[in-house]
Amino acid sequence: MSTAHNSRLGTPGRGQHSRAAILKAAVREFAQEGVAGARTDAIARAAGVNKALLYYYFEGKEGLYRAVLDQVFGGVRAAIHNALSQKLSPREKLVSYVCAHFDYIASNPLYPRIVQAEFLRAGRDPSRLERIAKQYFRPVFLEISELLEEGAESGDFRAVDPVHFIPSMISVIVFYFNTAPIMKLMTGGDPMSPERLAERRAAIVDFISAALFKLAKGGRK
Questions:
Q1: Do residues 152 and 159 lie in contact, with contact meaning Cβ atoms separated by under 8 Å?
Q2: Whole-structure pTM over 0.85, yes or no?
Q3: Structure confidence at residue 146 (pLDDT)
Q4: Would you say 165 and 159 are in contact if contact means Cβ atoms under 8 Å apart?
Q5: Packing angle, helices 51-58 and 12-37, rounded to 10
Q6: Which residues pair with 157 in a beta bridge?
Q7: Under DSSP, is residue 213 helix (H, G, I), strand (E, B) or coil?
Q8: Which helix (H) or strand (E) holds 87?
Q9: What is the pLDDT of residue 221?
Q10: Which residues contact 82 (CB under 8 A, 6 or more apart)?
Q11: Residue 14 has pLDDT above 70, yes or no
Q12: How far apart are the C-alpha atoms of 194 and 197, rounded to whole Å?
């Protein structure tokens, strides 16, 4: 590797920019082509870097795919944790969580494709999904479970089983993005437009609130 190349890699700002560009291109390539169909040369070309730089940072396609998974799952875990760590009432915190989860995916609409593909590939490499579950899913599940328990104890929420309620709630948040192409064909509108996203976000909050919030005295939620 040349001295000039080493110098470029040694510049923190430039190096981080190149790494981020590779990850961004990789997310698109893996979402569109899957792991088997993705090509590192296509990723490097889309990122505007040479293929050697991709291997320098990620050591190949598997290492890059692992980094993409960490970015996808790590980002959503951080967004959810930030929402749930606020000092709010159980109802306000629940709404904050739903909005944060929805907004994160709306800002990264390719992520659900990668998540779905990884679930389908679970049987081929169980150890990878076990790592993801331990590092990302379990902490999120425990945080939301604690909120559901807190809300039930305070009288804000109905008592629900987290094992069933949490997957149902997440499905309501995420499924819209997986079906966006079909909804566009069915309705003729753009489901990813700011207006439609705002409508969907409000509809999800209303739906989950109706399923969980207890009626206060006088019949109001």
A1: yes
A2: no
A3: 97
A4: no
A5: 90
A6: 213
A7: strand
A8: none
A9: 53
A10: 100
A11: no
A12: 5
